[in-house]
């Protein structure tokens, strides 16, 4: 059985406002991308890693991160797309064959080996899965002029994270259909839902934050020091 990870680092980092890719920000002396690469590399269930980066990052990431830190499982470094979904598609297109594909945001450095093991196991059973956590806040659906339309029952609301894992054919089919239909979503599970396949959520960890805005770096440094 072959399990391939697609690790995403081709975003624009607009909300971080750094002016350069946030996965290259140094945290505790190492680039953000190093953290998730290390966990994927260490996990014995992962056979290869396809890294997806912005075009101008390819050489730097190869020399200073992949070769520099001696990561051995990185099989390809490919260029990302204009949206996260297209970056995943480019990564997927570089995968010749896999049984299960694990998609992870390079901007989520606190992934654990347990999460990877959990999503791979559920992907083999169900076909598609993601880690997530029950929402702590009350959510309201807002209409025009910030007027509240309704308040969904929080007991059924979860915040979805990565890693997400899929049987290779399901993810490929979901992406190809999304392209055909011009559908764009913020995560890969949504594309699988759209083609009518089952998706199961595995309980993850609130610490598995996505570094999105500057205050997330402060939170990350605190979490790393625990
Ligand atoms: N076109 C894109 C957009 C996002 N990502 C990756 O998807 C993950 C989640 O995206 P997000 O944190 O929202 O990153 P950015 O798109 O960089 O952020 P922003 O929307 O603020 O520009 C990140 O690891 C990011 O590098 C990607 O590979 N390609
Ligand atoms: C996939 C994801 O991490 C799930 O929470 C998230 O949707 C990606 O964020 P983006 O801002 O849409 O790129």
TrEMBL record:
Signal peptide boundaries:
none
What Gene3D superfamilies does the record point to?
Spore Coat Polysaccharide Biosynthesis Protein SpsA, Chain A (3.90.550.10)
Q: Write down the Pfam families for this protein, in alphabetical order.
A: IspD
Sorted alphabetically, which InterPro entries does this protein's record hold?
IspD, IspD/TarI, IspD/TarI_cytidylyltransf_bact, ISPD_synthase_CS, Nucleotide-diphossugar_trans
Which reaction is this enzyme known to catalyze? 2-C-methyl-D-erythritol 4-phosphate + CTP + H(+) = 4-CDP-2-C-methyl-D-erythritol + diphosphate
Q: Where exactly is the site Transition state stabilizer?
A: 15, 22
Query: Which parts of the sequence are marked as the site Positions MEP for the nucleophilic attack?
Result: 154, 210
Mention one GO molecular function.
Answer: 2-C-methyl-D-erythritol 4-phosphate cytidylyltransferase activity
Answer yes or no on keyword Ribonucleoprotein.
no
For this protein, the Enzyme Commission number is 2.7.7.60
Q: Which family does it belong to?
A: Belongs to the IspD/TarI cytidylyltransferase family. IspD subfamily.
Q: What does this protein do?
A: Catalyzes the formation of 4-diphosphocytidyl-2-C-methyl-D-erythritol from CTP and 2-C-methyl-D-erythritol 4-phosphate (MEP).
Q: Which NCBIfam families match?
A: ispD
State the name under which the record lists this protein: 2-C-methyl-D-erythritol 4-phosphate cytidylyltransferase
